[in-house]
Design a protein that fits this description.
Elements: E1 14-17, E2 20-23, H1 31-44, E3 61-66, E4 69-73, E5 76-80, H2 95-107, E6 117-123, E7 129-132, E8 144-150, E9 153-157, E10 167-171, E11 176-179, E12 188-190, E13 205-211
Antiparallel strand pairs: 1-2, 2-11, 3-6, 4-5, 6-13, 7-12, 8-11, 8-13, 9-10, 9-12
The structure holds succinic acid (SIN) and fe (ii) ion.
Fe (ii) ion binds next to loops.
């Protein structure tokens, strides 16, 4: 039987670095409500595989809600107020999302965080996200808040240089990671997702990352 929740010593919240906090199970109680909102968002702005500026199709499927959405194409990475697929604004950020992100950020020492973007990533077994920095935002005093749902994943927590050795941190359904301050530009990624079936999400992991783009 696969473990879907952190157990034993892994159950504890953990300061990962200066400005970075892992909140175990922080979003667990709201998972069903979060999923219902994600389904509504994906009905209006379906998950899609973006192409990197280098021409590679990303294995993670993505969509967004909020005032802007993170998009990538041959021209580069950017925040766009419209979904390029439909030409319409992204679905609005549900109040539940905003409230959760603001509360998590405050726990990590970033009061008053007001996300204007939620990027939603969908992983299936084998999907990975290579080490990268989140650096397309306008204001690095604002943190990133990341919520994990569904299948467990290994979060790669690197340093400020791409070549710094990355720690491997298991993330479970309901876990929230906040990184800001001195950790805001740390490299991070997701190791290839293992096979499995989650009671709520099946063979998927969903990740919500909240950002302040402008
Ligand atoms: C991201 O870096 O945008 C997502 C990280 C994750 O899926 O946990
Ligand atoms: Fe990221």
């Amino acid at each position: 039987m696969q473990d879907f929740f952190a157990d034993g010593p892994e159950r504890k919240d953990e300061k990962l670095d200066e400005g970075a906090l892992l909140l175990r199970g922080f979003a667990e109680g709201m998972a069903a409500d979060l999923l219902a909102e994600i389904d509504r968002i994906a009905a209006a702005a379906p998950f899609r595989h973006l192409v990197t500026p280098g021409g590679f199709r990303m294995s993670v499927a993505m969509t967004n809600c909020g005032d802007f959405g993170w998009v990538s194409d041959r021209r580069g990475y950017r925040y766009d107020p419209q979904d390029p697929e439909s030409g319409r604004p992204w679905p609005p950020m549900p109040p539940l999302f905003l409230d959760l992100a603001t509360r998590a950020a405050a726990m990590a020492g970033f009061p008053g965080f007001h996300a204007d973007v939620c990027l939603i990533n969908c992983y299936t077994p084998g999907t990975r996200l290579t080490l990268h920095q989140d650096k397309d935002e306008g204001d690095f005093t604002q943190p990133i808040v990341s919520i994990s749902l569904g299948l467990p994943a290994v979060f790669l927590w690197g340093g400020l240089a791409r070549t710094d050795k990355a720690r491997r941190i298991p993330l479970y359904h309901g876990d929230v990671v906040v990184w800001g301050g001195k950790s805001r530009l740390r490299y991070h990624g997701i190791a290839p997702l293992k096979e499995g079936s989650h009671p709520l999400l099946g063979a998927r992991r969903l990740n919500l990352t909240f950002r302040r783009a402008r």
